[in-house]
Design goal:
The protein has seven helices and eleven strands. By secondary structure, it is α/β, with parallel strands linked by helices. It folds into two domains: about 5-100, no CATH class; about 105-245, 3-Layer(aba) Sandwich (Rossmann fold), CATH 3.40.50.980. The strands form three sheets. Strands 8-7-9-10-11 form a five-stranded parallel sheet, with helices on both faces. Strands 1, 4, 5 and 6 form a four-stranded antiparallel sheet that branches.
Length: about 260
């Protein structure tokens, strides 16, 4: 189960102006409510861009920053404990989350800018043989996942989500086919990637760097190094990018944003 849950821009408890979405199905203890556009919550949704302002997902975030810089952007809830519930007649431990903690668009943008600058400075997203800059994202939902995706967009790079339900064989196939040089992941995924590269170095030839959301100790770094990978952390990228700021190289509407294998 996730150690935190995430929400983006739907903080009813904050004075962020008119609500942009309405609830169409209630939430549960372990999940938020289902929401849709406040102006088109019935029938077909409108186009997902504003002509002249938004033509890419990069533009969408930048517009939010322009018009709501000091309003809530991303929220997350830390896991505070567990409780026992019955699932299919069996007792199961279910996570319990605390209240949402919110970051403003400006705060998120500072992190996005720093991580994007680090990606450029450390050459973590070079183009593959087809000219595409592809980086893997491998974790359960968390605000850093969304921020990493936005950071990639500042460098005209696309994300490739990876998830455990794909299985090792499919994860290996995706990494080999996309020739991704970097994967940003949660701590639990790092040893899996090290083991996969050791087992099939040819398929993982292009993968050289793992960026872990959590901090890493010397033993974790050495284990990664022994498996042919450089282990960096999210904190490192923020620090490197803050010290080596560089301008955005945003995508065009015809560029890739996400490659999602299902």
């Amino acid at each position: 189960m996730p150690s935190s849950s995430i929400n983006m821009g739907t903080a009813a408890s904050h004075d962020a102006g008119p609500q942009q979405s309405v609830e169409v199905a209630p939430g549960r203890d372990d999940a938020g409510a289902v929401r849709r556009s406040a102006t088109h919550h019935e029938g077909e949704l409108p186009p997902t861009y504003l002509p002249g302002e938004v033509s890419t997902v990069y533009d969408a975030f930048q517009r939010g920053l322009r018009i709501a810089a000091d309003h809530p952007c991303m929220g997350h809830r830390e896991q505070t404990g567990t409780k026992e519930v019955e699932v299919k007649g069996k007792p199961t431990q279910q996570p319990v989350f605390g209240a949402f903690t919110w970051q403003t668009y400006r705060q998120v943008a500072d992190v996005v800018d720093a991580v994007g600058s680090a990606i450029a400075h450390l050459s973590l997203a070079p183009p593959n043989d087809t000219g595409h800059r592809l980086v893997g994202l491998y974790s359960k939902n968390r605000w850093e996942w969304a921020a990493a995706q936005q950071a990639l967009y500042t460098r005209n790079a696309a994300s490739v989500p990876l998830y455990d339900t794909l299985g090792d064989r499919s994860v290996t196939y995706i990494i080999r086919q996309t020739a991704m040089p970097t994967i940003v992941c949660s701590k639990v995924e790092t040893p899996k990637l090290v083991a996969l590269k050791k087992a099939d170095p040819a398929s993982f030839e292009r993968l050289t760097t793992v960026v872990q959301f959590e901090d890493a100790d010397d033993a974790e770094r050495e284990a990664a190094r022994a498996g042919g990978l450089t282990l960096r952390t999210w904190r490192e990228l923020v620090e490197v990018g803050t010290a080596h700021k560089s301008p955005h190289t945003p995508p065009a509407p015809t560029d890739l944003a996400v490659i999602c294998y299902t």
